What does this fold into?
Amino acid sequence: MLGAEVKWDEATATVHIKTKEDAEGKYDQWGRLIRTTNLPKNAKDYPYILADVPNEMYEMKYPFSHPDVKERSVSAEMYASWPEFKKENIDIWMDRLKAFGALWLNVDYRTIDDTWAEKVAEVQSDGNVGKLKAAREYVDWVKDNQIVIEGYLDPEPSMIYQDGFGGYNVRSKFRIKFNHFKQHKTLVYDTWFPGDMKLENDTWVPNDTPFEKGVWYEGYSDIVMDTNVGGNWGKTLKVSPGASLFFNSIIRKVD
It folds into this structure.
């Protein structure tokens, strides 16, 4: 593109294009260009709208909120008035979520071991004594079912809402490819409930969806983070053991 600066982000397979007009625009605290035209219908829910994020991602419906909460807390509100919502804290949350995504969406039965389970449990929220046990059971299942998947998770720090149940849902872009498995069952470590966790209880994993082997799928998903800390919880938010890639998501095959 004439007069444009083009950069490739290997980690997320994304092309970033910066034009002369971009240089005159406004940027957020992470250096992303903000747009002011062709806004999504619910633009008021967000602190700003990014130039390289489609309206489809912004306009995804919120799945639920606590019945005792009249309105969920949206990003615009939390960024404007919640002391925890400052870049220092949000960077910590996003780093944990990215670390989780790198593990979550990249498993190989030929190489996975207990280290994978320990690293997953480390970035998941505290107070859940069964999270390591659940991760280890998934490791065993990956080996038994000969699962090989690859992908990435790209969380968007400006798109967070609080659902009233204590969860902070981070809208994220993802890609995933299922390279190998024997049974089309529990392919992703998803919504595990330690204590009574069984492989059959994968509530949100779409086992009835015929994902094709060797085909990329992409979309958007709300990934839940939470904390068991009451006051001054800004740095403590971690990935919920009940996080799901499929609970509130848009997913499609990549052409």
Observations:
- The chain has a mean pLDDT of 86.
